[in-house]
Amino acid sequence: MNKQLATLRGEVAEVLIRNILPYWMERMTDHTYGGFYGRVTGKEELLTEADKGAVLHARILWAFSAAYRLLGKEEYKLIATHAKRFLIDRLYDRDYGGVYWAVDYQGNPVDVRKQIYALGFAIYGLSEYHRATADAEALTYAIHLFESIERHSFDRKHNGYLEALTQEWCEIEDMRLSDKDANERKTMNTHLHILEPYTNLYRVWQSDRLKEQLRNLIVIFRDKIVDRQTCHLNLFSMTTGRANILSIRMDTT
Questions:
Q1: Which are the contacts of 159, defined by CB distance < 8 A and separation ≥ 6?
Q2: How many angstroms separate the Cα of 232 from the Cα of each of 114, 127, 176, 252?
Q3: How confident is the model over 187-196, as pLDDT tens digits?
Q4: Among candidates 151, 132, 129, which has minimal Cα distance to 140?
Q5: How far apart are CA 109 and CA 92, in angstroms?
Q6: Could you report the per-residue pLDDT of 205-216, keeping only the tens digit for each?
Q7: Contacts of 21 (CB under 8 A, 6+ apart)
Q8: 118 with 177: CB under 8 angstroms?
Q9: Cα atoms in the 13 Å half-sphere on the side-chain side of 137
Q10: How many helices (H) and strands (E) does the chain have?
Q11: What are the φ/ψ torsions at residue 229 (nearest 5 degrees)?
């Protein structure tokens, strides 16, 4: 079994190092406007003027930061830094905090709503970059995003985190990540992608308040999201009305 695991590990590392990471470095890095190209078709047609999303850049930031931390190759650090710069310089909202959902190919805001899912991924990427490089700027912005989520998304009355808000952190009618999702104010998906980055942030920033909110997220999953009869995860919260943002509960019955 150990030999099989070693073989599998070698195959995975080979694909990562020789295929996946070089693809993003050599084909998808935008050296003109910063960041990474927003779209490539299934036929490898690069759409250089496609919009650029916060989630894409945050995931690339995490991936190359983790690769640098584990493998130590300087080129991975350079790409991670390239991703960090675009996230902070173009996707971070200087006026209201948080990150835009998307900017155009030149880095100008085109979708300014605050999708908490995206803020979570940004924390994940920035905290991993700090973990790999000890970069103070990345940690500062990760903490800023944590504070924004706690100030604007956390429901102090009924617990849990609201799915999305306007640029100015006001209630928004359409909270969906995509048109395939139900339009609900609290989802398992977003809570999962707050739990993940908060955990990574705690690795590098042992804040008591962060620890408290991490513990609370685990309790929410245990008591409100996990279906104890099936051991599945309930995807959406039950709603009691749409007029009041605080009327949404994480009840599963």
A1: 216, 220, 224, 250
A2: 28, 29, 22, 12
A3: 999 999 999 9
A4: 129
A5: 10
A6: 999 999 999 999
A7: 63, 64, 67, 76
A8: no
A9: 7
A10: 8, 7
A11: -80, -35
Look at residues 37, 57, 246, 61 and name the one whose alpha carbon lies nearest to residue 138. Answer: 61
Tell me phi and psi for residue 30, to 5 degrees: -95, 105
Residue 238 parent element (H or E): none
For residue 174 the two structure tokens come to: 């359409």
Q: What predicted TM-score, i.e. pTM, was given to this entire model?
A: 0.91
Rounded Cα–Cα distance for residues 48 and 151 (Å): 36
Handedness of CA 145, 221, 248, 184 (dihedral sign): positive
Give yes or no for a contact between 161 and 154, defined as CB atoms under 8 angstroms apart: yes
The helix (run of H) or strand (run of E) holding residue 12 is helix 2-15
Domain ranges of the chain: 2-247
The CATH code of domain 2-247 reads: 1.50.10.10
What proportions of the chain, in percent to the nearest 5, are helix, strand and coil? Answer: 55, 10, 35
For β-strands 109-111 and 114-115, DSSP reports them as unpaired
Instruction: Enter the tokens of residue 245.
Output: 């943002």
The DSSP H or E segment spanning 146 is helix 136-148
Q: Which two tokens stand for residue 162?
A: 């609201």
